[in-house]
Amino acid sequence: MVAAGLLDVLGGGFLAGRGGPGGKVSRCSTTAAGGGYTSNMKVAPTTKNWMRSTWNWPLLVVVAPLAAQVIGWGLADRYSYLKWDNFEVLSPWLWEAHGQLLSGQFPHWNQHQMFGEPLHAKGQAGACYLPYTLCQMICRTTGLGPGAYCGVIVFAHLPAAALGYYLLLRRLGARPFWSVLGSLGTVSGGYLTAITTLWVFSFPLATLFPWGCLAALWMLESDSMQAVRIAGTGGLLAAIAAVGHPQMTVYYWLAIALLAVGWACWVHDWPLRLGRMALALLLAGLLASPVILPMYELQFLSNRGQAYGLEEFSNRGVRPMELAGIFLPTLAVDSEALPAKYTVLAYQGFWVAASLVGLSALALKAVLPRRKGESDARIAAHPENEQLLRSITLFLVLAGIFVLFALGRHGLVYGWTRVVPVWSSFRWPFKFLGLAMPPPRSWPPWEASTSRDAEPHGSQSGRRCEPGDRRRRLPRIWLAGRLHAGRYAGDTDQRCVGTPLALLDTRWRRRTVLVLGIVSCGATIALAHDSEAKFFDETYASVGPDELGIDPDYRVVPLSEPIGPELRPVAYQEQGLLHSATMNGYDSATGIYAALYDRRMDDWMPAYVWGCPPPSFVPKLIASNFLRAANVRYCIVVKEDRALVELLDSQAGYARVKELAHTVVYANNDALPRAYFATRAEPFSPRAAIEGLFENRSALRTAFLEGLDQARDFADAAVESIQWDPAGLRATVVAPEGGLLVVSVKSYPGWRAWVDGRESEPVAANGIFQAVWIPAGAREVVLRFKPAIFGVALRAASGGLIAMLVWIAMQQRSRQMKDDLRGAKPAGRKRLQN
Question: In terms of pLDDT, which residue wins out, 674 or 48?
Fold first, then answer.
């Protein structure tokens, strides 16, 4: 996030003497009379400077970040976007969800972990975000595979991100060259790179953010309420939600809303236009309903329905000294997130401090007393300067708000946000730095005129500038320059603020600065990738059911914790930990306990965050009827875990089936299939289920049913054949006297059952699974996951979209009728004259 644009502020505006990009000043004149202002500055273009082309700047802003990535790849020892949650959580979810989409099925359910879970409702799979699907298609067609998925996502979004920040800066009045540098620094900065290597959703969100800001400004600046602009803003806000991270959705919606409020009420006097922003947010909420509402339903069953205490919440924020290490790169402050040498998440040297000092001074100038002899009338004659200062102040205030949240002192705020659909909105407050850091470092020098051939406004009335005017030229080595011709406050002799900067006065200076910026960003990218934060050396998606020697029709449970000084001396995939099952295409009883996981798992299958049960619980678990009734046949143990190896070797019913480099796989052939008929049903209570399933006081095929009045025994019945897909099953059964079909898939609102074509209500069995009553003689059973709330959300989204399209059509029709009337009036007058 280079604040390279501040070079012009810090360097005294060395482009000012060149008449804007690429030209020499031949003549300029200004007049100011009666409060008015005109400019007829002329610039002689330099034909050899290819940067003069309007279209070359967007091309450059797209190519420069790609070049920085290539440099970073060459410099980094470990260039990888598969760190931390990307490896453990996000890439497996994304690959599974969008693989289902490519196969023609919406990813409602993930059968590979925790006895199945509502994949789309967990949000972070981004099931409604089409670019993820396209990126997986690229990985599949090119043979890159899932290991390159996160990297492909970054590279696919990089051009749009760079162009978005470039256009936002241009829209705010920045010159093209500095907009390129500001965009380059934003998308190639160390903070965004480091965060993206851990949380890949950060880059799509950063990509959509400038476009959302542009849409909001575009919407507010229209003289009339235009449905197209409101629809565009609402659509971009909905796209931010579709990325799938509700916590970050809150942050980015809040940022854009605050920008709109400040723009309408502070920079301009348009408070009544904020109604448009409210409509855009309403539309975004409707369009994003298929993402938000399923998460809201899952929240009440999840671990994120409880608030943190103030002390714990504060510990998740950024300490004041750590924040100082982030904003002032000369400090090396220990951090819980990164080692000391990586605490400077910006990795940009003096850029950060210089930007903060320079912009703070410019903002203060708006409120400090005028210098003696300065004409207030001249200031009043140029209102664009006041608007500029207010814009700078607005962004500094926004940055301050996000930094304040990043300090993590908002336990009461979190207390009420946990009850709204966005769950856990402020759980990790330091993520606000992702929004706090761009504003103070992405404000390059402005040009007051929208004409690219005009010099900035504000020079003294009647003053003429000749080509050889030394007052407008930069000294060869500049240490303390002056701000040109009142670019910020209508003064011809303002002293520049900020950190001194030395620049060579050569015709190649801009090219030199651009090359240095690209190289600097490349080094930044390399440093961010070389961070030690949970880096994985193992080959991705390399240990599947064949390598483990397991039958995919049965589940696996990892038993060993990661062992060693860094908790990862053995391959996670060989251990079956985290989301290895989802990533490698087999089924596990556990998984990583991240995002919105069902807290019922803590009651029936407790496990640590990486997916293995507590050591004290393992002996009871492996001997229990619960594990066998849950379709768990295989256990994975690390060879170095001597106690567990001895326990499994001596446990009745278990035998070794495979030895890998680091682990041993055991099998228990008494495990039941995933769908079986119960021989007895008993009323459910936690105590009865624990005694029957974990203390083995009941027969293996006993089911404990919620809502059952008294125990029942059943005649023999069997599952003849079964077909599974990611969202359910189709089974052929033989049940002459009927019975109870138990399916060891997690019960959850949205499961529906049909027996011989007639719908039947599933019931909860064993505290966590599904069961279906089968009448005598029934032959076919279908169980499907069709969440009703998703249908409601689709109708809400469709209604919002239709209403907006109708409004757009009505406005277009009204505008066309007015245009027709304007054209008809002159024609009518002409006929009358004839």
Answer: 674
Say if CB 645 and CB 582 are below 8 A apart: no
d(CA 704, CA 689): 6
Pairing type for strands 555-558 and 482-484 reads unpaired
Could you say which DSSP state residue 427 is in?
S
Conformation bin of residue 283: beta by default, left when phi > 0, alpha when psi is -120 to 50: alpha
**DSSP H helical segments within 651-787, as ranges?**
686-693
Three-state DSSP state, 230: helix
The tokens for 558 are 């990892």
- CB-CB neighbours of 73 under 10 Å: 15
pLDDT at 459: 33
Residues 196, 202 contacting (CB under 8 angstroms): yes
From residue 498, how far is each of 350, 358, 787 by CA, in Å? 11, 4, 57
| Portion of the chain with pLDDT greater than 90, in percent | 43
| CA atoms of 257 and 240, how far apart (whole Å) | 13
- Long-range CB pairs of 253-259 (<8 Å, 24+ gap) are 253/281, 253/284, 255/209, 255/398, 255/402, 255/435, 256/209, 256/212, 256/213, 256/216, 257/281, 258/398, 258/401, 259/213, 259/216, 259/217, 259/394, 259/398
Higher model confidence: residue 3 or residue 712? 712
| Residue carrying structure tokens 């920085």 | 68
Cα–Cα distances in angstroms (integers) from residue 141 to residues 137, 138, 144, in the given order: 6, 5, 8
Two tokens, residue 173: 């009045």
Q: Hey, what are 336's tokens?
A: 């819980």
Higher pLDDT, 143 or 317: 143
Q: How many other CB atoms are there within 10 angstroms of residue 306's CB atom? A: 9
* Helix or strand run (H / E) with residue 383: helix 383-406
> pLDDT grade, residue 77 (50/70/90)?
confident
Residues in Cβ contact with 659 at an 8 Å cutoff, skipping those fewer than 6 apart:
639, 665
Instruction: State how far the Cα of 738 lies from the Cα of 478, in Å rounded to an integer.
Output: 91
> Between vectors from CA 273 to CA 267 and to CA 279, what angle results, nearest 5°?
130
Tell me the two tokens of residue 780.
């076919």
Residue count of the chain, please give it.
Answer: 834
pLDDT of residue 355: 44
| 157, HSE (Cβ side, Cα atoms, 13 Å) | 31
Within 8 A by CB and 6+ apart from 635, the residues are 556, 557, 558, 559, 622, 648, 654, 665, 666, 667, 668
- Over residues 143-156, mean pLDDT: 95
Q: In this structure, are residues 116 and 110 in contact, taking their beta carbons and an 8 Å threshold?
A: yes
Joined tokens for residue 590: 């556990």
| Span 185-214, pLDDT tens digits | 788 877 788 889 989 999 999 999 999 999
Which range among 324-328, 704-708, 761-765 shows the weakest confidence by mean pLDDT?
324-328
CB 122 within 8 A of CB 296: no
Residue 180's pLDDT is: 84
Q: In what order do the strands lie in the sheet with 780-785?
A: 718-725, 728-734, 780-785, 751-755, 758-760
CA dist., res. 32 & res. 37, Å (int): 5
Residue type, 35: G
When computed from its CA atoms, the radius of gyration of the chain, rounded to whole angstroms, is 32
* pLDDT for the residue 547: 93
Residue 514: predicted pLDDT: 79
| Least confident piece of the model among 138-152, 495-509, 777-791 | 495-509
Please give the torsion angle defined by the CA atoms of residues 680, 683, 684 and 685, in that order, rounded to the nearest 10 degrees: -130
